Amino acid sequence: KEPKSGLLRCPEPNCLKEHCLMQIEAGAKLCRKMDLGGHKVVQGKTKTTYVLLSAPWNVLCYYAEEISVRVPLQAVTTPISIWSEKILEKLHIPNIMAQDVPNLPPDYYTCQFRSNKLERFLGHENKDTFFKTTQRHQILYEILARTPYGSLKRGEVGIGRLVSEHVLTAAFPLHEGPFEMPKTPVDPQSLNMRQILHHYWARWACWRKYQPLDHIREYFGEKIALYFAWLGKTEHTFNLYQDIKHVNMFNLAGLLFDNGGTVFFSIFMSLWAVTFLEYWKRTSSILSHRWDCSEFEEIEERPRPEFTALAPMTVRNPVTGAEEPYFPETQRLSRTLTGNMVIILMIAIVLIFLIAIILYRTILSIIIYRSQNGFFIFSAGRIASLTGSMLNLLVILLLSRLYTYLAQILTRWEMHRTQTKYEDAFILKVFIFQFVNFYSSPVYIAFFKGRFVGYPGKYNTLLGIRNEDCGASGCLIELAQELLVIMVGKQVISNIQEFVLPKLKAWWHRRKLKPAPSQEVIDEPDSEPGLSPWEANYQLLVCEGLFDEYLEMVLQFGFITIFVAACPLAPLFALINNWVEVRLDAQKFVCEYRRPVVERAQDIGIWLTILKFISYLAVITNAFLIAFTSDFLPRSICFLNHVVLLIGRIIDWMVPDIPEEVEIKVKREHYMAKEALAENQASFLETIIDGCNCYEKIY
Questions:
Q1: Is residue 636 packed enough to be buried (19+ CB in 10 Å), middle (13-18) or exposed (0-12)?
Q2: Sign of the CA dihedral running 429, 430, 432, 433
Q3: Which PANTHER family does the UniProt entry name for this protein (predicted)?
């Protein structure tokens, strides 16, 4: 950036020269490894310089071996099957969810790349196509993320920090062309991957179709594909709700939420949660093997660039044998304990706000009763409860933003080695806080409200104000109202934000970058009029990751399982929200976001552990909720609790996490990799072909 424009902001007046020298040094290092192309565009008073990066073959080979890129040994010819597709086919029922998506990415047996064994890998003859586009992106980002530009002790490493400090404004891989379909009919096989994803996945008309997960993985990487696979499984399993629970909307509210069907439905949802997680674990193991990520966390994942720069010492990795940076566990433990104190402080703040809202409801009811207005007096409790729920939702959303910011600072300070461990620590911090933040008010209404009222002549008080009591219809109805306001309100606000805000941000970003009447393009004398691909991509929004998407869905999972006895309609709203969420997220990634750098992942991380915790908590909560809040059944109903937990454990024990077919494929792939990387191999190709033919005959 030019100093005159004011876009380069330095912490000290005399540091401009130092920063420039650092950038020149970092640029010189990159120039030795890559081919650089510079394109300068003048837009009004702003000059934007685009540097296009590509890596030559020798750099690709070196870093592919360094970061353990997996390359193909042999094509897998066994077709991919979907269980629902098999069932419908056996029943001779047309499958309305199926669709023929062109250019299906092939599946391969793979192993880690080795330069000295290049001739043994499939497709090694063509250097232009041997590495996939996403693998090239990974290699380029690996170089950029680990190149120091200043002091290593201060962690001045990597392009991510340069972007965060506004030395650079962006760093991103390019999309593969436009997402709009051609105006004239064309062969579907000739469409680029972005057009395929938009036409067969991101459009609203695709709401009932299977997601093209292999195409998503091919274009966006394993981490994003696993998110959509998980989201799609929740969507499909929620469809069971329509077949299990049919509610007459015209019944009285008390009969709607407090009846025998509610008890049955609570048991069903508790078992559904356990079964869903078992089903997802099997699906996740199948996908992680098919996408070559089953050993990513244990063997292939590298230390974070920030950790590498700031770690005070190095030790030998017991798995890989390589010398790696190390941060003492005792220091990390002390920092973690400090972070836990911050969590406790924030939880205390949440409870203070909860008490404030309780007092607000009570005081508002008193004020309305003293108003001597017959209409308001009749609805005083309902008005106080509803406005309190809305106020509680506002407080929840504000505190969520504050704590998420604090959790990011604390997690960086704790110095976690890998990106997976960093994300797991960050997610756990935020979830603990959000769990209390979102569920404290429903828990209070379910188990505490109306329990400590006292009796005439000796009412219990809080800060001099009489304790709250449940209304004439009972606490269960008020709990259902609270859940609907918080859950549905958050869903509506989140979907509006996801639909409206990206469009407003994109419009404002394009407005700032609107070309001047005479746009100057340097180093491109033969360029055609209009935006170049890098300019068009720069006008898109930055992908901010999947954390908010996962958190929204996990909190929703908690609402529909922990409190389903109070609000049987919650799964219906969750189903509708998931239908909308899949399409909104797909449109954002395909149409509105810059293409994110591919990230590999073995599974959905600590989110699965959190979901297990919620599913077991749901069994206990629903049993006590029915026993102590419902007027329909006696308190002896708590023995549901033990039966459902026992059935859940039996399901967990009977259903293996990894299907037998996947275990055999893993062993087969390990054997093939050993043969491929062996020093003395006479008939390598014949061995692989014979083994694959034998495998296909058996299965």
A1: exposed
A2: positive
A3: ANOCTAMIN, ANOCTAMIN-7
265 alpha-carbon distance from chain centroid: 29
Give dist(CA 679, CA 237) in Å, integer: 49
Distance, C-alpha 175 to centroid of its chain: 21
pLDDT of 368-385, one tens digit each?
Answer: 877 777 767 777 777 887
Q: Please give the Cα distance from 621 to 269 (Å, whole number).
A: 12
- Alpha carbon distance 671, 688 (integer Å): 9
Cβ count near 236 (within 10 Å): 16
Give 645: exposed, middle or buried? Use CB within 10 Å, 0-12, 13-18, 19+. middle
Residue 323: per-residue pLDDT: 78
43-75 confidence digits (pLDDT tens) = 667 778 888 888 899 999 999 998 889 999 888
- Predicted local confidence at residue 472, as pLDDT: 63
CB atoms within 10 A of CB 566: 31
Whole-angstrom CA distances from 261 to 237, 238, 433, 448, 505 are 20, 18, 33, 25, 46
CA dist 631 and 226 (Å) reads: 43
Positive or negative: CA dihedral 612, 617, 623, 626: negative
Alpha-carbon distance 600 to 222, whole Å?
5
% of the chain residues with pLDDT over 90 = 20
Residue 47 dihedral angles phi and psi, to the nearest 5°: -110, 120
Q: Check if the beta carbon of residue 423 is closer than 8 Å to that of residue 605.
A: yes
Q: What are phi and psi of 634, to 5 degrees?
A: -75, 165
Lowest mean pLDDT among 594-608, 623-637, 640-654: 623-637
H or E segment and range at residue 691: helix 684-698
Amino acid 57: pLDDT = 93
pLDDT digits (tens, 9 = 90+) for 217-239: 999 999 999 999 999 887 665 55
b vs e for 242-251, b when ≥16 Cβ sit within 10 Å of the residue's Cβ?
Answer: eeebeeeeee
Q: What is the C-alpha separation between 110 and 69, in angstroms, rounded?
A: 10
Report d(CA 437, CA 68) in Å as an integer: 41
Give residue for tokens 């509680």.
392
List Cβ<8 Å contacts ≥24 apart for 677-685: 677/111, 677/114, 677/117, 681/120, 684/120
Tokens in use for 49? 């310089």
- Of the candidates 42, 34, 233, the residue with the CA atom closest to the CA atom of residue 141: 34
Q: Helix count (H) and strand count (E) of the chain?
A: 25, 11
| Radius of gyration of the chain measured on its C-alpha atoms | 29
In sequence order, which residues have a C-beta less than 8 Å from that of residue 603 and are 6 or more positions away?
A: 226, 284, 288
Predicted local distance difference test score (pLDDT) of residue 679: 56
Q: Tell me how far the alpha carbon of residue 677 is from its chain's centroid.
A: 36
Q: What per-residue confidence (pLDDT) applies to 148?
A: 86
pTM, entire model: 0.82
535 C-beta neighbours (distance < 10 Å), count? 18
Give the distance from CA 448 to its chain's centroid: 34
Is the torsion defined by CA of 8, 13, 16, 19 positive or negative? Answer: negative
193 or 167: which carries more pLDDT confidence? 193
Please, are residues 436 and 421 in contact by the beta-carbon 8 Å criterion? no
Query: In 414-485, which residue ranges form alpha helices assigned H by DSSP?
Result: 419-447, 475-483
Lowest-confidence region among 7-16, 95-104, 276-285, 528-537 = 7-16
Cβ atoms of 194 and 177 within 8 Å: the answer is yes
> Is pLDDT above 90 for 561?
no
